[in-house]
Each structure stands twice: as structure tokens, then as C-alpha cells.
């Protein structure tokens, strides 16, 4: 065993030396140092490269663009232990931060009443009871009221919240639905049958024809006159 170990070590050393010589040979072939008096040829490329051009084996410019770097997935790291109802604010890399997103803004349906046309001189600094519709409750809107802003019901009523109608008392079947009251709740009256949309009859030119028995021209299934007789 003592005579075999040095032989194996010698073989390993020889393999390592051959590998290093091979690497040096390949690198010397791919990267050549140009002579001292070597001048790079002038190249005119038709396309622009945002990351610049590649070089040849002599270190001279080519018209090939440098490839874009491959960006792997970003490790966002630990996030602070806070609960955000609407999620965390993201940074430029798409990673969550320690700030919470604000409540999403939504406008209450309806219009604010018209402002008073009286000439009122308002103070420069005045606190408002609301800034947006989300500062209000029960379907109210944040509207201008005199010199300030306050929560009032919109012109067409609080439409963002469904009305509390309760249970119905009549047991009737309405093929076209029930009539609703001013609150939007169903009543015990049925909607009438909707009127059919009038069919636009085409314009026709018929040869002169006398229809016997005073029947007159016939009509098609849409009620439009034809060139035939009844």
C-alpha cells in the first residue's frame, strides 16, 4: 500500500498539470494580444446597441450587441410583522415594505346638491369634516357646503347601499317583475307587459294590382304590407 500511494498522487499531479496547460492553451487562443503596431479597423454599424458592442479576439469593436444580463428572481428577505387589510406597499423591486396600502377610493353614486349662489367670503384656512366619499357613512357624499365640505346625501339619494326592504307580504308571481317603490323595494303590483319594439317595415314598390272584394294588400308576420292581396 505504501508503494501505490505515491504513484496515485503522482498521477493526480500530472492530470492537474495537463488540465492547467489545456486551459492556458484555450485562453491564449481566444484572447490574443494584438501587436504593438496593430490598428483596429474602422467599423460602421447600422444598428444601435443599448449595452454597447462586443469585441473581437484583438480587442477591437464589432457590430454585435452585448447580451442583456439575465436577472434572476429577487430575494425580498424578511417582512415586518404587520397586518395590512389592503396589502403592503411595494418597493421598486416589487417587494413588500413596512407600510400599508390605503383604503381604495370609491365614489358614492349620485350628485352633490348645487352650491349656494350667495356671495360668501370664506377664511383662508378652514377645516373640513370630510375629504373624500370614504370619509362619509350611510351612503352620503363629501360635498361642498358653504365654505366647508361635509357629508350629505347625494341629489338622487344614497344609491351605494342597498335599501333595507324587509320581507315581502304578497305571494304573487309577476312574469315581468314587480313594481318597486321610491326606496327600490318590491311592491305587490306587477309590471305591465313591455310594449313590443316597432319593426321597421321596408319600403316596397309593387306593380299596380287591384285586390278584389276590397281586401287590400296582405301583410307579413311583422305587420308590414306586401304586394299580395288578402
Automatic annotation (TrEMBL):
GO terms for cellular component: extracellular region. The keyword Signal applies. It comes from the Eukaryota. Transmembrane segments: none annotated. Keywords: Protease inhibitor, Serine protease inhibitor, Signal. Residues 105-155 form the WAP domain. InterPro entries: Antistasin-like (IPR004094), Elafin-like_sf (IPR036645), Hirudin/antistatin (IPR011061), WAP_dom (IPR008197). Residues 1-28 form the signal peptide. The keyword Signal applies. One of its GO terms (molecular function) is serine-type endopeptidase inhibitor activity. Residues 40-65, 65-100 form the Antistasin-like domain. This is Antistasin-like domain-containing protein. It comes from Mytilus coruscus. The lineage of its organism: Eukaryota, Metazoa, Spiralia, Lophotrochozoa, Mollusca.
Amino acid at each position: 500500500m505504501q508503494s501505490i500511494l505515491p504513484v496515485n498522487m503522482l498521477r493526480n499531479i500530472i492530470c492537474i498539470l495537463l488540465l492547467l496547460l489545456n486551459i492556458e492553451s484555450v485562453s491564449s487562443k481566444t484572447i490574443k494580444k494584438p501587436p504593438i503596431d496593430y490598428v483596429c479597423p474602422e467599423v460602421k454599424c447600422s444598428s444601435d446597441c443599448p449595452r454597447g458592442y462586443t469585441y473581437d479576439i484583438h480587442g477591437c469593436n464589432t457590430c454585435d450587441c452585448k447580451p442583456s444580463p439575465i436577472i434572476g428572481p429577487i430575494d425580498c428577505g424578511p417582512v415586518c410583522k404587520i397586518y395590512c387589510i389592503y396589502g403592503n406597499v411595494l418597493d421598486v423591486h416589487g417587494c413588500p415594505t413596512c407600510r400599508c396600502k390605503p383604503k381604495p377610493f370609491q365614489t358614492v353614486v349620485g350628485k352633490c346638491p348645487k352650491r349656494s349662489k350667495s356671495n360668501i367670503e370664506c377664511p383662508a384656512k378652514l377645516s373640513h369634516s370630510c375629504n373624500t366619499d370614504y370619509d362619509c357613512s350611510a351612503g352620503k357624499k363629501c360635498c361642498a357646503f358653504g365654505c366647508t365640505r361635509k357629508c350629505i346625501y347625494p341629489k338622487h339619494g344614497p344609491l351605494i347601499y342597498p335599501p333595507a326592504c324587509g320581507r315581502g307580504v304578497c305571494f304573487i308571481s309577476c312574469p315581468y317583475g314587480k313594481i318597486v317603490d321610491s326606496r327600490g323595494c318590491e311592491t305587490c303590483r306587477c309590471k305591465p307587459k313591455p310594449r313590443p319594439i316597432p319593426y321597421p317595415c321596408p319600403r316596397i314598390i309593387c306593380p299596380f294590382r287591384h285586390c278584389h272584394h276590397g281586401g287590400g294588400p296582405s301583410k307579413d308576420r311583422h305587420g308590414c304590407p306586401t304586394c299580395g292581396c288578402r
